Amino acid sequence: MIGLLGLVSGCGSGSDGGGAAPASTTTSAGGGGSPAAGGGTMVEVKNFSFMPASATVPVGGKVTWKFDDSTAHTVVADDNSFSSPPLQGGQTFTHTFTTGGTVKYHCSIHPEMIATIVVK
Ligand SMILES: [Cu+2]
Among 119, 59, 115, 69, which Cα is nearest to 89's? Predict the structure, then answer.
């Protein structure tokens, strides 16, 4: 039997307006290198906050942060299990969560920007 892995997050609201940036960031972290097209959870970094501030992903799930603010932000786990460089202007950063638990993270440039990923 083939489990129907959800195309859950499908197409958002249509009027998204010109996302022209080709997300061809060279990831250093080995592996597949397919752009985070299928699946995964998107967190927007905008207006000095993470939206949603708490996101839930399954173990093995991917979270992609999209940096849509006019100033650079980072995504850094409080336990330093992952971190991004400063990003902005529509750039993205993806991390795969392989262990269950609650991961708190923040922006190292603006420490008041905090949020949580729940992995289960
Ligand atoms: Cu920031």
Answer: 69
Q: Which has the minimum average pLDDT: 32-46, 52-66, 73-87?
A: 32-46
2 CA → ligand 1 middle, Å? 42
Q: How far is the CA of 88 from the centre of ligand 1 (A)?
A: 10
Reported pTM: 0.69
Q: Which of 66, 62, 80, 61 is nearest to 21 (CA)?
A: 66
- How far, in Å, from the CA of 7 to the mean position of ligand 1? 31
Please, what are the domains in the chain? 41-119 (2.60.40.420)
